[in-house]
Amino acid sequence: MGIKSFLAKPIAKLAVSKINKWKNQPIETQTQVFHELIAGGKNTLFGKDHHFENIKTYDDFKKQVPIRDYEALKPYIEKIIAGESDVLWKGIPIYFCKTSGTTSGTKYIPISKESIHNHIDSAKNALLSYIAETGNAQFVDGKLIFLQGSPVLDKKGKIPTGRLSGIVAHHVPGYLQKNRMPSWETNCMEDWEKKVEKVAEETVTQNMTLISGIPPWVQMYFDKLIELSGKKNIKDIFPNFSLFVYGGVNFEPYRAKMEQSMGKKIDSIETYPASEGFIAFQDSQKEKGLLLILNSGIFFEFIPADEFFNDNPTRLSLSQVELNKNYALILNTNAGLWGYSIGDTVKFVSKNPYKIIVSGRIKHFTSAFGEHVIGEEVEFALKTALDEKTKVTEFHVAPQVNPPLNELPYHEWLIEFEQAPENLMDFAKKIDEALQAKNVYYKDLITGKILQPLKITVLPKNAFINYMKAEGKLGGQNKVPRLANDRNIGDKLLR
Questions:
Q1: 410 pLDDT exceeds 60?
Q2: What is the value of pTM for the model shown?
Q3: Which of 181-195, 208-222, 244-258, 337-351 has the lowest mean pLDDT?
Q4: Could you give the count of Cα atoms lying within 13 Å of 117 in the half-sphere of its Cβ?
Q5: Which of 362, 385, 439, 492 is the most exposed place for a label (fewest CB within 10 A)?
Q6: Is residue 438 domain-resident?
Q7: Can you spell out the DSSP letters for 215-260?
Q8: Is residue 48 part of a domain?
Q9: Is the pLDDT at 84 greater than 50, yes or no?
């Protein structure tokens, strides 16, 4: 055991005792965060525009602050870019996190000197929670890799600007820097394919013990390693690789292929970082769900997902949520986001402590016929149909509203297989039956002969990589939406 892994255990124990304090007082913790945020925002332009001086309770807040997306926040962001201070939060942001939006083009999300700790400490606490529960700290003695975007920062106005992973790279604790791969020069490469090749070259002979990243891009890294080394799987290349940390997408559709590439099952930690804040992390290998981070400068609100597009949707605080119900997630943060919809839906799987799963995107659904099929449902249906042999690389579901030859409309599943099923029709039937069992509206449309059962279109190898490359979104935190309510992505994939 190395000195780092020896010291990690008491540090982990101390961190978990601090987590338990707020975890066991969830409502009191969120109430305290709420009052701190109102006090911090009172003298800002936003606070004055929305009469923060009159806000004493959450009900007061809901009356003064409407739900908004980036477009509604943009006039304030533009004032910050122009050099104004005390706009959304006291002072000026220390960074802008640059991210892509569907309607807004590029979005610039502020990160303040207060909110940066949320991003850094939450990632650290995810690892320390794992060490405290399992006793496995050996990975901190080996080499660690975080597959991420370039840490090179630009300026927007006078504010340093970059991708979230690039910003966070500047705040990795010193005791991990020497263990960290790849080199700074390689990490700064913008061409993702060339970067992955270089990362593989630099790491193939190293003692890699922890690997972190979005599953499809980690799989791309694994493929390069196997090709470069001539070995059969990752455990032969990295025999001490023991922990996989991921976020951004559901791991389950990738699990079979990744475990085949690894050659063994290893522990994993799911995280839920977003440009707007680090929201939750998996704190246990034994329990389902991600622990909602309640003490870190974010006051959470929740809107029942089926009400989100209403003119006056119900807004709930943590004390009012129910288990197993889909909610649109709303953030209020110490970076100056107020009533801000990040576009995700979550579902509570526990209220003691408060744990969530990410169930989808509020705008990523298929409902061309009123079925409102969401990400959680298609991922469940696919998992139900998978057997030990069939391995899916990636998939996308789009409605086929006007099929040829006067057929009934249907859902088209565009799937890239690592290993296709022996009988594609049986595989499609199993998915369809599982989806009907999960979504009664979809079942009614099938039984009522409004829709025919889904059809699978098999895509060639690297179809999704080539699509992302053509869109300029290969690598980093980018991912292909699992669902769409139109043919835009589907038709591009087919081309």
A1: yes
A2: 0.82
A3: 244-258
A4: 7
A5: 492
A6: yes
A7: HHHHHHHHHHHHHHH--SSHHHH-TT--EEEEESS-SHHHHHHHHH
A8: no
A9: yes
